[in-house]
Design goal:
Layout: E1 8-11, H1 18-44, H2 48-73, E2 75-81, E3 86-93, E4 96-103, E5 107-114, E6 120-126, E7 130-137, H3 140-154, E8 157-161, E9 168-170
Parallel strand pairs: 5-8
Antiparallel strand pairs: 1-2, 2-3, 3-4, 5-6, 6-7, 8-9
Helix pairs in contact: 1-2
């Protein structure tokens, strides 16, 4: 039996490109190689000082490789469950996923703005001036269209905050 009472909006990240996955595989490979060396040294029972040096190198270089492996392979999906008033951020690496849930009482408006790197970010604002950073885009038109879609599905207003100090509410009634 299907549940028609549940209303969700899913914003799924695009798949990673081939070169990002190759870089992630290289970083993961280096991490696993270094982990193997540390385990081998523990098995051999080499001196304590050498073990500390290897462990320090593993933590610094291995940590760097693991973090950049995650950076190049992880994706972030957003699920807005309107029925339960929850925003779920799902981080996905291969077949592993981790959900972070944020309880929301009422959605107020969605805004788009230009950040210091020249990209256009979007925020979903909810009660008491709290916001959720959603996505960033390269062009203003794409960010606007994304905000318009979210605004129509949640029946909330849109704020154009691309110019500092000159925020404009966008009237949806005048749109095509």
């Amino acid at each position: 039996m299907e549940n028609h009472d549940k209303f969700e909006i899913s914003i799924l990240a695009k798949k990673r490109s081939w070169y990002e996955l190759v870089l992630a595989a290289i970083f993961y490979g280096i991490f696993i190689y270094l982990l193997g060396i540390v385990i081998y040294v523990i098995y051999l029972g080499i001196s304590f000082i050498l073990f500390i040096k290897l462990l320090t190198a593993f933590v610094s270089v291995g940590g760097f490789c693991f973090i950049y492996g995650l950076t190049f392979s992880a994706t972030r999906d957003i699920i807005i469950n309107v029925t339960d008033s929850v925003i779920i951020t799902r981080y996905v690496v291969a077949s592993f996923s981790y959900d972070v849930k944020s309880k929301v009482t009422e959605f107020e408006y969605v805004s788009f703005f230009q950040d210091k790197w020249g990209e256009y970010g979007t925020n979903l604002w909810y009660v008491k001036n709290r916001h959720y950073k959603m996505c960033s885009f390269e062009s203003k038109e794409v960010a606007y269209q994304f905000c318009l879609n979210i605004s129509n599905k949640l029946d909330i207003d849109i704020l154009d905050a691309t110019e500092k100090g000159n925020f404009k509410w966008i009237e949806k009634d005048n749109l095509k």
